[in-house]
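Dear colleague,

Following up on Tuesday's group meeting, I ran the structure prediction for the two-component complex that the binding team flagged. I've pasted the input sequences exactly as they went in, so you can double-check that nothing got truncated or mislabelled along the way. The structure tokens for the whole assembly follow below. Feel free to forward this to whoever is handling the docking comparison.

Inputs:
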Amino acid sequence: MRLRIAFSKHGKVRFTSHRDVARIWERALRRSELPVAYSEGFNPRPKLSFGLALSTGHESNGEYIDVDLDPARVAGLDIDSLAGLLTMHLPVGLTATGVVVVDRRMPSLQQAVTSCTWQIDVRDVDPVIVEASIDRLLGCDEVTVTRERKGKEVTDDLRPAVLSLAVVSPLEDGVRLIAELGTQPRSARVSEVLSALDPPLVEHRVLRLHQWIQTDDGRRAEPMAVSTASSAPLGASV
Amino acid sequence: MSMARASFDGPLWTRLESLLPQVQKPARYIGCEDGMQTPEHGPGIVSWLMTYPDTYEIGLPNAGLQILYEIINERPDGAAERSYAPWVDLEALMRRDGIPLFSVDTHKPAGEFDIIAFNLSAELTYTNLVNCIDLAGVPIHSARRRDGDPLIAVGGHCTYNPEPIAEFVDLVVLGDGEEVVGEITELLREWKRSGKNAGTREGVLRELSKIPGVYVPSMYEVDYDGAFIAAVTPRYPDVPEKVEKRTVADLADWPYPKQQLVPLTEVVHDRLAVEVFRGCTRGCRFCQAGMITRPVRERPAEQVSRMISEGLKRTGYDEVSLTSLSTADFSGIEKVVGDTVSDAGVGQVSVALPSLRVDAFTVGIAAELQRARRTGLTFAPEAGTWRMRQVINKLIREEDLYGAVESAYSQGWRRMKLYFLTGLPTETDEDTLGIAELGRNCVELGRNHHKSPSVTVSVGGFVPKPQTPFQWFGQNTEPELKRKIELLKDDLRGAKGVQLKWHDTRASLAEGITSRGDRRLSAAIEYVWRHGGTFQEWSEHFSIDLWLEALAACGLDVEWYVYRHRTEDEVLPWDHLSAGLHKDFLWQDWRDALEELGLEDCRWTPCYDCGACTGYGIEHVVASATPPAGGSQGTGVDLSTGGAVPVMLQAKRTLREETLATASPGARS
């Protein structure tokens, strides 16, 4: 049986890395005494699978982890109380917000998620200038960026990954942007989109609002909604 | 967006927060560990900032610091938070923006605490100690501090010779801190209530110096006779002439840490740790830890088992380390191992035994513990020949080592790591080359079981330490240590399966400078710090040139501090501080060493009257009256057989001896 857990990451813990969060989850799951399935072999590891990495320093309202349970030990498990139980075993700032059962045949989170919505706060800028630079970027057919990958310079076009980008509100000392950025074939980073603007911007605080999965009927939905729709009753998928 | 904890966050956190995206590993600075405490501060509460003067990853797991953090926070009149040395990237930003050293618990400025207490486990952190005091906004010299400044305290193994840092610290705690932190808190509580009025600091320091185990360097006058120390004298009649260390009699009374901190980011020793005993009586003459922590005090096996099972459940760790100076000597080891293995459920918990004893019995225990992962085993024979091991009193016979190695290979291990010291008293090139010989022989044994067995031979330069029988020994010069390493490199060239690793001999020199120095060395430490020499334990920041330049600038001599043999009648800089060992016991043990005379473990043999038990009116707390299976440090084994090498290996050695004969060791140097 596979569980999909949604969680948020806010405050001081945003400075932990993706790897740190993975270890935090391993410990929290052991503490919760959930019957997690382990891999076979000399070095058994819990069967967990994490979604898209969140950059160190970014906050999120929508993070996900898939956890396989040991079918022999799931009897009597109360799915509805799990989120509260898990939050108790997580550090302050990490909160489990929902748990659903998903079909094990579904593609992994990494494969399934196609885009993310970001809230980006930028300081010390004039909203009018920012809006103009966004218009220019969105008006381009191509936005070439070079980055280093495995020691080599790689050039690609960032434009197709910028699905939307707009100023939503001025802040006391800057602006708040909302962006939807594609994650396939690779995740577009908030920082590279901001640097591609002219003049370039530097993020002050970034919050992932949503991760989106493209459904069969062409709509987009959040990972929990997709899984609920296709999930079998408890126990049946074991 | 920010949640909870916000109520604890002062203005410092807000300023720090905007710097964290610009530094490496920002999670070092956020606290938030499971087990973290956010104590209340107030007029009747003495606030301690427990500080480790190296990075968070190194400092967080420090057990001493965590134990005292809990004990102080359990007191109604105490509050303890923690701090670690910021890495150089954050330090630069903090200095630019005027942000002081801070606690990671509530991000409170260090200068607002009543006392900043450092754990000193390694001499090369001394410049970081000075840096942290400066970052706290406190004058680095004790003599310049004002009444309102925090007191600077130090504890830990380095405090058995704190003279090189005497000018920077207000008080030094010798030995176990569990009880004495309470006594210090009570004294400071009254001082704080009275308002720490002008001119009262000196009086408080004088009162502190009367607490057993507390050494206040400024209460002592050091007189010199040329380069020698003539005398160290208390400045007041009520200040003790000799400061004795503190020793807790029964570990069962101190089941700490109860809430071991679980960090959010990776640290060294990222696992549950349960201390099974304190002290060691094997009597290895080079080992400062073994000398200064006597007598042996075991924790009851039931308590150990309970701390393991409760600790694993609470922390979510899947690994526990049973800590002590020689865990296989713990009389309850078999019960604890049995309990843990049967308790572990689906076999997902692994148990680490640091400091393994070298014998087959130990490997048996390791086999029971590491059912799944048999990656590598580490042994520490410490020296390459039986003669040398009798000198250092590490009474491991060749057959013990080969028995352990044979047993390990036959039970599935493929990799061994062997630890050695070089530059030991009376060491000849034959002794040094014996290290290579042991390594090769272990690989040979492995070939009977595996195609490509591997043995890592790790060699460190010996640094003589205060309060040990080798405190009189002149350290090998840096070029001599380097020559010995080269000798081993040459000898092991082309040796299949043996990897040689060695410690930087220049770092051993710097450690030698700081280990047995006196108060005059403070100036050199300050010089190194002022010239950017922080994080000297990190190879990318370590600079021997800076240390040598500092000594020259301060008119101090390397030869004098490091390479010179001391005489029996010399006043050593730490003679007024006592780890309980009689100086004549240490001198006798030094003479025994030179006569190649080994001493058995005194837990199971008659007392040698070192002073540690009798002086404090306590005894070794050992559950079993008989030595553990496999023997311990010569008890119950025939020591006359030490040099014997199994026949099977003899043939191989003859071949190598032939090659050795064609190129004598001396010719290679």
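The radius of gyration of chain A is 20 Å.

Cheers,
M.
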